[in-house]
Design goal:
heterodimer; A: two-stranded antiparallel ribbon; B: Amidase signature (AS) enzymes
Chain lengths: 94, 489
């Protein structure tokens, strides 16, 4: 069982907020999902290597050459706030 | 006059014979969508000028002598594929105003084949869901019963094909998101082998399982679409550099002697009795066509659900960390500082199911839980993949139900979160193991469609399509259409 404080800590790691009103329900749902995972402990995985990629493929390497797939101006059009070629965020240093 | 319940193959013949033009087909599709979609909610972006221009271009190309089975045929994309200049939202408030400056490889390939994109299909937000109820743009309704869900996450794509808005829609399948809605809406949906189709420009959910595929009326049409969609892409390092066969070439082969494995675990207590009987009858049809039916066992089937719901949210929590309100996507109003910008943009921009999965994924990846949950799930994934490989040494394909239930009612409060996750119990294994799988219409239970799933060995899509086509030669379940008369007036 995980308590509300842990769920709040996890939310902070994920940069999400949970209101006081929602925390009880969020914790209950969290525990309901974790209970689903309990079944994993029944599996004997002594000799099982973790499977990260279903094809177990090796990372292919390409020639290290600069290519422009999308131009900068087009990308910047989706920025919520920008100035020249920079993304604007709240002031970090006073 | 051609109509949109017809298959791609049939429409292509009529286009070739000049019985219909691409412009006429596209105008029909637009009119039909405008008439039906206010109730269905399957389409969340309709690009009329773009579609009509593409149709005219296709008509001109055909007049100039170009031929292609897909040329001038209208289609829809799941709104998870980036489309240059056309909003791509992933059905999330987070991306409600996102207009990509590039096309996904799948989009480009189908454009290059001459298909005409009509617009974008609704879906579960960030592909997280099995009912299409988590969309920011509202739930999609099942054309067979408007009080029921179409399945998910590619629910808009499935409903659009089932309602005759289009002969083809793209979907993506991370844990069953092509096959389950295909089953619930009575259409054919193929999840290719992981790595068969490029993921470039496909908004990421769980990168080790996400795979794009076609959703259409028939296996024959899925083959035509896969011919265009599949192939190596240097822009996706997980896309396999393996040649693409002609998936249409072997459709007519006999399935005499083919060994079909029936896992007893796929007919367990989770399964609706009517679906069990329907799928059993469908398997007998394969037997009548000459297939040899073999009892097999996949003992870790139920464990797949736990495994998937550890791994997929973990990968999602990492993938969705990019949405921070800085470079693109939703940004909260008047952030007081950078931390506030991140937290409020994410909290306000993501829906409840997405946040639930990010939380679980963040937890299982945290140092204290990593070995107990994430590492353990990766090991169980290995066991599950080995079980499938072992069974597929003895049989050519595995057959069973696509989903444990027919379409359930919308807003069903009696279904818990984990009940909803169990909807994926029969589809998840193919994603964990990276195998191709197809769902084909196999009958009706209480007037609602049922799908039979066929799972094959890696890169054996041609075999699955061959079996599915032979099944569809012998049955007419794929030809049934929902009664939409009340809406078509």
């Amino acid at each position: 069982m995980t308590d509300a404080a842990t769920v709040r800590d996890v939310a902070a790691l994920a940069r999400l907020a949970i209101s006081d009103q929602d925390i009880e329900n969020a914790t209950a749902e969290f525990n309901q999902t974790l209970a689903l995972f309990d079944a994993l402990s029944s599996a004997d995985t002594t000799n099982a290597a973790p499977m990260i990629n279903p094809l177990d493929s090796e990372q292919p390497l390409r020639v290290d050459r600069i290519e422009t797939l999308v131009d900068r101006a087009a990308l910047m059009q989706n920025a919520p706030a920008s100035e020249d070629d920079y993304f604007l965020v709240p002031r970090v240093l006073d | 006059m051609a109509e949109l319940f017809e298959t791609i193959s049939s429409l292509a013949k009529q286009l070739d014979a000049e019985h219909v033009s691409s412009r006429e087909l596209v105008e029909d599709a637009i009119a039909r969508t405008e008439r039906l979609n206010p109730e269905l909610n399957a389409v969340i972006a309709l690009d009329k000028p773009g579609a009509l221009a593409a149709a005219d271009k296709a008509d001109k190309a055909r007049a100039d002598g170009a031929t292609s089975p897909l040329l001038g045929v209208p289609m829809l994309h799941k709104d998870i594929f980036c489309t240059r200049g056309v909003r791509t939202s992933c059905a999330s408030k987070m991306l409600a105003d996102f207009v990509p400056p590039y096309d996904a490889t799948v989009v480009k390939k189908l454009d290059d084949a001459g298909m005409v994109r009509l617009g974008k299909c609704n879906m579960d937000e960030f592909a997280m869901g099995s009912s299409n109820e988590t969309s920011f743009f509202g739930a999609v309704k099942n054309p067979w019963d408007f009080n029921r869900v179409p399945g998910g996450s590619s629910g808009g794509s499935a409903a659009a094909v089932a309602a005759g808005l289009t002969p083809l829609a793209t979907g993506t399948d991370t844990g069953g998101s092509i096959r389950q809605p295909a089953a619930l809406c009575g259409i054919t949906g193929l999840k290719p082998t992981y790595g068969r189709v490029s993921r470039y420009g496909m908004i990421a959910f769980a990168s080790s399982m996400d795979q794009a595929g076609p959703m259409a009326r028939t296996a024959e049409d899925c083959a035509l679409a896969l011919n265009a969609m599949a192939g190596h892409d240097p822009l996706d390092s997980t896309c396999a550099d393996i040649s693409v066969p002609d998936y249409s070439a072997g459709l007519e082969q006999s399935i005499e002697g083919l060994r079909v494995g029936i896992p007893k675990e796929f007919f367990s207590s989770h399964l609706n009795d009517g679906i069990a009987a329907t799928v059993t009858a469908a398997v007998k049809e394969l037997e009548a066509a000459g297939a040899v039916i073999v009892d097999v066992s996949l003992p870790s089937t139920d464990l797949g659900v736990s495994t998937y719901y550890v791994i997929a949210p973990a990968e999602a929590s990492a993938n969705l960390s990019r949405y921070d309100g800085v470079r693109y996507g939703y940004r909260c109003d008047s952030p007081s500082n950078l931390q506030d910008l991140y937290v409020r943009s994410r909290t306000e921009g993501f829906g409840e199911e997405v946040k639930r999965r990010i939380l679980i994924g963040t937890f299982t990846l945290s140092a204290a839980s990593y070995d107990q949950y994430f590492m353990k799930a990766q090991q169980v994934r290995r066991l599950i993949a080995e079980e499938y490989q072992s069974v597929l040494k003895d049989v050519d394909v595995i057959a069973g139900p696509s989903a444990p239930n027919t379409a359930f009612v919308l807003n069903d409060d009696s279904k818990s979160i984990t009940d909803m996750y169990m909807e994926d119990v029969y589809t998840i294994g193919a994603n964990l193991a990276g195998l191709p799988a197809i769902s084909v219409p196999a009958g009706l239970v209480n007037g609602l469609p049922v799908g039979m799933q066929l799972i094959g060995s890696r890169f054996c899509e041609a075999q699955l399509l061959n079996i599915a086509h032979q099944f569809q030669r012998r049955t007419d379940w794929h030809s049934l259409t929902p009664n939409l008369e009340g809406l078509t007036g």
